[in-house]
Amino acid sequence: MPESQLDVLRGKIDKIDEELLILLNKRAKIVESIGKVKETQSTKRYDPVRERQLFDRIAQNNEGPFSTTALQQIFKQIFQVSLELQKDDNRSALLVSRKKKPEDTIVNISGIKVGDGKQQFVMGPCAVESYEQVYQVAEQVKKHGIGLIRGGAFKPRTSPYDFQGLGFEGLELLRNAADAFDLKVISEIMTPSDVEKALDYVDVIQVGARNMQNFDLLKEVGKTNKPVLLKRGLAATIEEFIYAAEYIMSKGNDQIILCERGIRTYEKATRNTLDITSVPILKKETHLPVAVDVVHSTGRRDLLLPAAKAALAIGADLVMAEVHPDPAVALSDSAQQMNFEQFDSFMKAINPCVNVFN
Fold first, then answer.
1. Does any domain span residue 98?
2. What's the domain range around 46?
3. Which of 47, 62, 92 is a domain's end point?
4. Are strands 120-124 and 112-114 parallel, antiparallel or unpaired?
5. Model confidence, pTM
6. Per-residue confidence of the chain (358 residues) as pLDDT tens digits?
7. How many domains does one find in the chain?
8. Is position 97 within any domain?
């Protein structure tokens, strides 16, 4: 075949390709419109009936030379890409989405800023047990220049016979110890009815992993003007995690810190599996600051330091760990808490890593 004739045929192919491109993008715009309609109607994006109808039309009208199966596979891909397009369009409408707000949200905890580029720590006991205990811990936290203290007063435990926390008495003890050293308090609240009363004691409301999809609680904390630390559920996908944050923000509260705390997998070497790559994914998909809980993700004191280094290196805004005067006699999670000597060593080793990778 002469070269000139080949060029002519290739030119025809190029023209058809350009027409296909225009038609595919025209189709995509209609798909986006369909997605918006489905969203208002709360209709599922995937419609297998429509897909089957298309496949039947291809089988009836295909005259070759492509086989019917080949064409059906091509349109199968178009269908899948269209679903993703509707998904992306839905995500761009989310209040927590980076597409909705390109700039980072900075959470202000009574003067301590999380998400402004300066990496922070929050330390404290797993559970508030006594005033003496939290006072001693608060003193150590302050000594290391940390402004945030954590401590559980409401403890959702796997067994109903395990220590469940001191409730509001524990919050009061934690608040008093924190005030003695000018620290800000992060503590978990479990039920919507307790939120209003808890505001007198906490600077940050923590929504725990088991409550990530407690939608009534999410909506209730969304109505407050307090920052919220939202932990990822034990088996939650990143998408589910993001939608949980959307519940909070949809009620008006944009002061949200997302906390990766490990997810449940088949691995037994650690308490959970730290999904460290969730940090950059969440920071890419949302404008919210991201924390990493190195305690519940590992469940092992010997892994706290390397996990914390990894969290800082990958861009976490906040690292959470636990400290107790005597972990051996702690009422909960003794194997993952540091004593004061170990805490000193931890901070000495981790401080040189802060803001190094920003």
1. no
2. 5-92
3. 92
4. unpaired
5. 0.79
6. 456 888 888 989 999 999 999 999 999 899 888 888 877 776 777 788 888 998 999 999 999 899 999 999 998 998 888 888 776 555 557 999 998 999 999 999 999 999 999 999 999 999 999 999 999 999 999 999 999 999 999 988 778 878 778 999 999 999 999 999 999 999 999 999 999 999 999 999 999 999 999 999 999 999 999 999 999 999 999 999 999 999 999 999 999 999 999 999 999 999 999 999 999 999 999 999 999 999 999 999 999 999 999 999 999 999 999 999 999 999 988 889 999 999 999 999 999 999 988 6
7. 2
8. no
The helix/strand/coil state of 248 is helix
- Which residues partner with 222 through β-bridges? none
The CA-CA-CA angle for residues 202, 208, 209, to 5°, reads 165
Q: How many CB atoms lie within 10 A of CB 267?
A: 9
Q: Three-state SS across 196-256?
A: HHHCCCCCEEEECHHHCCCHHHHHHHHCCCCCEEEECCCCCCHHHHHHHHHHHHCCCCCCE
| Separation CA 29–CA 100 (nearest Å) | 20
Last residue of a domain, one of 60, 92, 124: 92
Task: List the structure tokens of 203.
Answer: 């600077």
One domain for residues 148 and 180 = yes
Measured from the Cβ of residue 249, the count of other Cβ atoms closer than 10 Å reads 21
Whether 126 and 156 map to the same domain: the answer is yes
Which domain CATH number covers 53?
1.20.59.10
